[in-house]
Amino acid sequence: MEIERKFLIKELPDLSKYDYVDIEQGYLCTHPVVRIRKKNNKYILTYKGSGLMAREEIEAELTKEAYEHLREKIDGHAITKRRYLIPFEPYTIELDVFEGHKKGLNMAEVEFPSVEEANSFVPPEWFGEDVTNDKNYHNSNMI
Amino acid sequence: MEIERKFLIKELPDLSKYDYVDIEQGYLCTHPVVRIRKKNNKYILTYKGSGLMAREEIEAELTKEAYEHLREKIDGHAITKRRYLIPFEPYTIELDVFEGHKKGLNMAEVEFPSVEEANSFVPPEWFGEDVTNDKNYHNSNMI
Predict the structure, then answer these.
(1) d(Cα A43, Cα A61) in Å, to the nearest integer?
(2) DSSP code for B18
(3) Nearest partner of B58 among B71, B48, B69, judged by Cα
(4) DSSP 8-state secondary structure symbol assigned to residue A71
(5) What is the mean pLDDT of chain B?
(6) Which terminus in chain A has less CB density within 10 A, N or C?
(7) Which one of A29, A58, A66 has the shortest CB-CB distance to B70?
(8) What's the domain count of chain B?
(9) Whole-prediction pTM value?
(10) Alpha-helix runs per DSSP H in A24-96
């Protein structure tokens, strides 16, 4: 079970000092989510059950060839984004800077060990609107 | 981890007294296996890691709509078969009687709690060749 909150970004911080990974992903199905993702040199199949803040999530490894085979079967557009990992003790902010057809969108996710911690989280100044409960900001609705 | 042995069938027993389920399945990918299956009114997504007798297996629930959406994306043919469940103490024989493009093929699988039990299994008289290690009899190679 993954417990997370999502926020739009008011103003990007200086990103030059943070690590990042380049991500490409696509959806074979959106309800429930069956997603393929390329993250650097790793290829992953993900299933996500229903739910917003807390969702069942299963991951399994794919080969590059399997990814490319399934890449031909995705619905709509692939999503490409650069994900920055920003320490924000005791959490890590995952800041997604979108490329491709969603270029201009910036969104942050923070994962929590419990619903209580998620609810009491105080976001940094540069975060904007909380979109945790807005399905439009599910990546699966952005294809 | 699933531990099982597979056999061809020399001669079908009288099947009239056994329970069965009708199965339709297809493959989005075969290496690794990403399979969709309809089993009566249940729709399941399955991932299988590599390996023959023992393979990692992950299952997740699909809706009918998700199944039908993914059904459009399968490789090759869908596989249809009637699966009989035949008690063979302390095991259950799963006997698959294939329909569709594989009509005429009959194959049995038995699942075991350990590799030791799998190796010491004595099959009933009506079983034929042991094809556990023959990849041609993976359903994913029959599409």
Answers:
(1) 6
(2) S
(3) B48
(4) H
(5) 93
(6) N
(7) A29
(8) 1
(9) 0.81
(10) 64-71
Per-residue pLDDT, A37: 97
pLDDT at B2: 76
Contacts of B89 (CB under 8 A, 6+ apart): none
Residues in chain A whose beta carbon is closer than 8 A to a beta carbon of chain B? 28-29, 31-32, 34, 45, 47, 49, 58, 60-63, 65-66, 69-70, 73
Tell me the CB-side half-sphere exposure of residue A82, using CA atoms within 13 A. 11
A27 counts as catalytic: yes
pLDDT on residue B61: 94
The whole-number pLDDT of residue B51 equals: 62
- Integer Cα distance of B24 and B42 in angstroms: 11
Structure tokens at B100: 């569709």
Q: ipTM more than 0.85?
A: no
* Domain hosting residue A25, numbered range: 2-141
Position A55 pLDDT exceeds 80: no
- Residue A79 belongs to a domain with what CATH number? 2.40.320.10
At B105, is the secondary structure helix, strand, or coil?
Answer: coil
